[in-house]
What does this fold into?
Amino acid sequence: MNTKSGETESLNRAIYGYATEVSGLEDENRLLKQTLEALKIELRKFKTPPFIICEVKDVIKDKAVLSLKNGNEFYVDISEEVKNIHPGDMILAHQKNLTVIDKINTTKRFNVEQFVIIEKPDVSWKDIGGLKEEINEIQEVIELPLNNPELFKEIGIKPPKGVLLYGPPGTGKTLLAKAVASSTNSTFIEIVGSELVQKFIGEGAKLVNEIFELARSKAPSIVFIDEIDALASIRVDIGTSGEREVQRTFMQLLAELDGFSPLDNVKIIGATNRRDILDPAITRPGRLDRLIKIGEPNIDGLRQIFKIHSKNMKIDKFRTEDIIKKMEGMSGAEVRAVCTEAGYFAIREKRKKVTRKDFLGAVQKVKHEAKTEGGDFMKMFG
It folds into this structure.
């Protein structure tokens, strides 16, 4: 009896062991199947061609007009699974035939503040030398309408919406724009035209629209468009997608200018070194129709600029007029560079005062670098 009981117990243990082993194998088999299925799904992802993100320009019955980033537009089919798409929606389209296969939720707005310089400048009119007449003009066109709009309403005239500052590099165009923003306590929003063109192909017009929306939200504000000729130059050939994009961005800029009232608390200042290539549309009445030339300073202007940039320097006693005469033909930015370089000469020799010799060496160095670097040195100093 004991023998049979022992055999039964051994048999039960064997059966239990086999059952446990089978259960373990089944679990392992299930896990392997799940892993295989996951790998198949991942493999399908690698084999699936990418879809194109497009914007819907129009919907006509069961077809759509799509706009691609390069500016091309296509009339395509819409998959039956896609419902309720409207102009302005962002969608996924098949790569080969551009059939609309899905609608995606994506922001159509930029975080504009990432792409512009926004500041409250602390530049005062006293920081600008040699531009007395130009300062008076920009005060009349920008400062007066922002600070006293009621004067224009009483007289019954409309001030310009903005100005175009033109002239050689380094003559103070950016400084003037910052100074008038400071004097009116306005938000200063700076855009560089060439960067807008290079970085935002396919999105330039939209970004311009949102920059001006930002300007309205932060009013009183001044929108400063540096190198405006990159956007607003005369286009001979607009056949390429890049040129078409620049044209669309330019047209959006004109539309924004037209949308402002002359007495709005947003003003636009454009700056260029190449007035000769500008499209007349940007300077026609009602847009940037006040043109202010910012030329190189005369001797008196150089004297004022030198005084501004050297006022905090410890200078050995000598006749500064000789140095100023040697700087004739320089821009304001170059005069500033001369003061900086003269200070470096003193620092290198561990002196606490700047000498006449330092300034003479600085003048020579700045003139040499301005010639060899084609004006880039001037741009570094504003």
Q: What stands out?
A: The longest helix spans residues 2-47. The CA atoms of residues 113 and 211 lie 8 Å apart. The two ends are 109 Å apart (CA to CA). The first strand starts at residue 52 and ends at 60.
